[in-house]
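Figure 2 data, in text form.
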Amino acid sequence: MATSSTRRALLVPGGIAGLSRLIAPGIGAGTEKQVSVARRAMGCEFSLIFPGEFRAACDAGCRALDVVDSLEQKLSVFRPDSEMSFVNRTAAASSVQADPEVYDLLRMAARTSRETAGAFDAASGALVRAWGYLHGPRRVPEEPERLAALRSSGSALVALDDEARTVRFLRDGVEFNLGGVGKGYAIDLALDRIRTGFGVRCALMQAGQSSFKAVGAPRCEPRGWKVAIADPTRPSRRAAVVWLKNRALGTSGTAHQFFDSGGRRYGHILDPRTGWPADRVAGASAIADSAAKADALSTAFFVMGVEGARRYCLDHPGAGAVLVLKPKPQAVPEVLVFGAANAEVLL
């Protein structure tokens, strides 16, 4: 259990406010008191909200956040001593046996890459590095550098052996970057741990105001935990409301991570198939059973755009998509909802 110096627990009437924007629970959900426990990890704030009557909220929340800290030590590519950094350094020379939690995430990422025809691909770290989004400075790479990074990117260049639980890169220069799914996966593991250890039956956990997962529903709102998706072009405006009940939501956009060069704006979400930043829509959110899957799909939907997201949801009935289209000047952007999200989203 975390020491008291790492805890922050507050009785609040609503919950997380603000978002970049996801506005979470208690908004319009009555006056039921809730307990919020938060801590910074993975470069953002993680927080959990529990019903006010749950007496183990602080202990359960701190335990969940300890799980996040432990996973960050394994997944971070910014820590040279992490397991993922070791894999990136050595898997081109020989197979590397991975920790079970790490291997399960790599398998999920590879499966999602196949399902999305490469629109999401965690094995595109070479492209992230080439654009300066790893250690900086952010820049438009020269064409030979972009093409070289593209040749060293893609899950087709990774061999996973499920029986031995090993990872092998089939070409030099391949790198994993799990930034697109790491926060969601941490939420999944943390909630699993406190459901088992503390009997948690009602909670909402979020990371970076872009990854959410709900357990159960508040007594005052049987539809689930209320989360609002903001208009990425005008953050003060709400684009949609989602009720999450034993489901997860991930959102992707480039409103806050970008750079300008040569009179053009370049966002941080790269299309792994071309090596260029994606810009088909203004924002994309995905609803799925796991937070890691929702995070991966929101990235894929942002890259694929409207038709790709529509086709994916038709082929995968459990998935949902909420897309905010790029608006015309002075116009309110159109919002499209596909798949399972139709039953969970209010525009």
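Caption note: Residues 83-180 form a domain with the T-fold fold (CATH 1.10.3980.10).
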